[in-house]
Design brief:
Number of helices: 5
Largest sheet: 2 strands, antiparallel
Structural class: mainly alpha
Distance between the termini: 27 Å
Helix content: 40-55%
Strand order of the largest sheet: 1-2
Shape: globular
Strand content: 5-15%
Radius of gyration: 14 Å
């Protein structure tokens, strides 16, 4: 389970799969290694913003500026550049490649 804060600042416990849990643990380890101060915070996706976290709206706004072809091209190039990281999910690659400026710069791979 993971605690998620939603609309109206309500917190909910959400079940997550084992692969999702493993991905979160890998991400948190990278966050602690590259940005220890951010890792001590309360947000899973900290950002240099007023709220202190990556809002879904900010990520969606950035992603909307891309075409499907651009997304596919970036995902393909990530896997070509990182053959040892083929277990990285497509969604994680999209976050890494397209959240520039809102994703902590020390964590982009």
């Amino acid at each position: 389970m993971i605690a998620v804060r939603g609309k109206g600042a309500k917190e909910r416990l959400v079940p997550i799969s084992e692969p999702a849990r493993a991905a979160i643990l890998r991400y948190r380890a990278a966050l602690e290694e590259r940005m220890p101060a951010a890792a001590k915070g309360r947000w899973l996706f900290p950002a240099d913003s007023r709220s202190g976290h990556l809002a879904r709206q900010a990520f969606a706004r950035e992603l909307k500026t891309k075409t499907v072809e651009q997304v596919v091209e970036q995902v393909d190039s990530y896997y070509k550049e990182n053959p040892g990281k083929l277990d990285t999910s497509v969604l994680e690659v999209i976050l890494i490649r397209f959240a520039k400026g809102i994703y902590p710069p020390g964590l982009t791979r």
